[in-house]
Amino acid sequence: xxxxxxxxxxxxxxxxxxxxxxxxxxxQFYGNPSSMHTFGGQLHRKIExxxxxxAALIGAEPEEIIFTSCGTESDNTALMSAVESYPQKRHVIxxxxxxxxxxxxxxxxxxxxxxVTFLPVDSSGRLDMDAFLKAVDDDTAIVSIMYANNExxxxxxxxxxxxxxxxxxxxxxxxxxxxxxKIPVNVKELPVDMLxxxxxxxxxxxxxxxxxxxxxxxxxxxxxxxxQERGRRAGTENVASxxxxxKACELAKExxxxxxxxxxKLRDKLEGALxxxxxxxxxxxxxxxxxxxTTNISFKYxxxxxxxxxxxxxxxxxxxxxxxxxxSLEPSHVLRAMGIPYTAIHGSIRFSLSRYNTEAEAxxxxxxxxxxxxxxxxxxxxxxx
Length: 385
Ligand code: PLP
Prior knowledge:
The chain is of the alpha/beta class. It is built from twelve helices and 15 strands. It starts with a strand and ends in a 7-residue tail after the last helix. Bound molecules: pyridoxal-5'-phosphate.
């Protein structure tokens, strides 16, 4: 049975057009793009075509795109490149709500002796700009602030932050993994030096990503070896996935505006109905500044994991704000940073939509959720029956 899939910030289904585009590169054209013979060498041109399509989605020049294995590698590469390129600078700035790909890399740098500032957010997940202004100093090697948060969808003021950093000549990286293909991104106007994206969040396969590096930015490779990617990222290219990523970006660019409208309407319908039909429910995150496809709702006095299990019985997929690690429920670091009470964090559910979601699917969730919440509240350890 086809799932009702509302977990697209975790990963997306591969678009059929994308799969069609990539399959010949497993079956037929399996050569190595670095080979001298035509069979392999012709793939080099296909990779460059894909690079141009990815660049076009974000307004970059093709040579500013470096292929990586995923969003995590792109994030790690950006941070590592900055600290290697500016060894005299010993300070790094990120936010408390970054994806672990940035957060844990910064913690790693902190253990290695760098000074790391993790900027706070307010109860709506908005960045504390005063804290940001206070944190920046001449010792800052890089500031890494996500474009939009994967759990709440809250969008940060990247242009404003970037302009301040540009004036101070400080490197700025943004993790745009959840943004690319959902809202317009144009690095020609956006004051960022590096920007991460990932294939599997926009209907390409897992295992391929890209890092945009603005021309003129000092860069130091993270993966060292062969001459691929003009010496900026070694390793034989993941040809089929790169071609797929190119196709997915082309589709995303073509449909961006229409799709964003569709997603917002469907998300708002789902969200509005759930808030109306389920008492003690609240939205987490700044509703005025959110990705069009994401809603994060706390159903107080219930365990998110229990909700997910009940949804699973209807083959409905979503995510919760608490992750089950070694038998205990670890509350989301994002919602904790926002100061959301634990009873609300534990009952938080993220629905994230894609172009493949239908009105009928949203209706199914709207039909089953109120009953699930009611039933779970009667069993709630928080005593709200
Ligand atoms: N950054 C953000 C904001 C994400 O949401 C994710 C994935 O969930 C990543 C980075 C990591 O991307 P990947 O899974 O491609 O390594």
